[in-house]
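Anyone able to model this chain together with FE2/S2 (inorganic) cluster?
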Amino acid sequence: MPEHRSATTPRPAAPGAAAPAAGRGGAPGRLLVRVRERIQETAEAVSLVLDAELPYAPGQFLTVRIPGGGARCYSLASSPHTGEPMRITVKRVPGGLGSGWVCDAVAPGDVLEVLPPAGAFTPGPGGLDRDLLLVAGGSGITPVLSLAKSALAAGRGRVALLYANRDPDSVIFREELRELAGEHPGRFTVLHWLESLQGLPTAAGLGAPLAPYAGREAWLCGPGPLMDAAGTALRAAGAEAGRIHRERYFSLGADVFAQPAAPEPPAEAGVEAGAEPAAEAEVELDGRTYRLPWRRGTPLLDVLLAAGAPAPYSCREGACSACCCRVLEGGVTMARNEVLDDADLADGYVLACQALPLTDRVRIGYA
Ligand code: FES
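re: yes, here you go
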């Protein structure tokens, strides 16, 4: 899977997605998972099958600690709806520290330090029952395969996949896709695009194959130029912009494993002389309601982690949407936001890692 990723069109993490179910690492949210099996998918791509039963939603990713410092986000290729074990798939990036380590060094029996599954590249309630169009390029197939298997196993709609690759040898999951299509005739259609035969996929070239599916909810993951071309082709065919979801790449600028999970405890209301009294946060998360003082300059995520709440997060930089939640009452501002668009903001979505209170009382919901 490409290193570092993010998504548009956020949805709160799946219910319970932040609840740890494996061995705990040294700080809140961190987990230790053992590698059960290593699968060489292609010459450049490796899957790691994990001994872990973490709640997750189709299309989500794991943040994995990389030896020597840093972390990478790798999408799960497995489906939470098929009973299969969790599996991440990683494609070697030239010079990539994380992908090089996974592809060259990680072996069965090794233990990985991870954060709970997160990410917003996942259909919301009822989303798996709709007809879907999936577009993937190269290792962008990883979360897309999870969506496809989940929709076919747990949904009622039809699924079409356009999958672009350099040549036949670089097609990851070729056999698995062929078997899925055979098991679901009439429901699952796979269209391969090979650059060695058809050239680079352009908006003009993708117009004809994608047009029949322009009315479907579309999920795109792959290199930026491919997603741009597919998005343009779909818009030209009449697709609504709000129904086109993209998985974006981003860089984790900080080592999320090296940072303290809760750098600053929330203050008691008005405890500092001259300081503006703390706001009150009422947060519905994982079946519980937390009522917490919220210091004006402290991000909501830090307040929640300091209180021991299992709030999801990954980058803590406003770039991945793993911490996405929704304002139900009151107002917040965000110090940084690289993933939410105007429509998301209008729907009340915010990033907990960047959210600061604007009103004395704010009610927040997850999932
Ligand atoms: S944790 Fe990545 S945007 Fe908040």
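Residues 59 and 144 are 6 Å apart (CA to CA).
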